[in-house]
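Bug #2210: token dump truncated for DUF4358 domain-containing protein?
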Amino acid sequence: MKKMILMLLALMVVIAGCGTQTAKEGNEVNVPVSDLMEVIMQKTEMNKDQFFDINLKEDTETARNLGIDPTIIEEGQYMKAMMNVHADEFIILKATDASNIEELKAALEKEVANQERNWSTYLPEQYEKVKNHIITQQGNYLALLISDDAEKMEQAFTNALTSESK
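Reproduced locally. Full output below:
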């Protein structure tokens, strides 16, 4: 059973590696947001089953609750810890074009402010996690990473979207 799981995991890594497109002098990167999230989850060995997984393009109500206008994203994925005692939250967005980046960044910053307000009086270690969040951008892609592994997640996100990842 372990061998089968390891073989499947190795196959997924090979498939993900072959399917990832990279930026080459003037070429636009086009990596599905779901693939980015998968790479991030694998690099941090997080269990995806412990998170709500929401497609922000399809669930426009959740997108709007997060302050994200679904008409200005090509794709979006939101993962939030299922247990209310964990602040872990990840949002990856692909803007329809560069003119929407600032509006999307503002929405992510607003979500961080909401989470800081929620956690500031609840669980101190989770509040620290929120305070140490990372918002990062690569081209038309944005990510909000709230996790103990936020730095690893940022590195995986960046590597998946740059030519240096190959």
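Output looks complete on our side. Residues 33-165 form one domain. Marking as cannot-reproduce; reopen if the truncation happens again.
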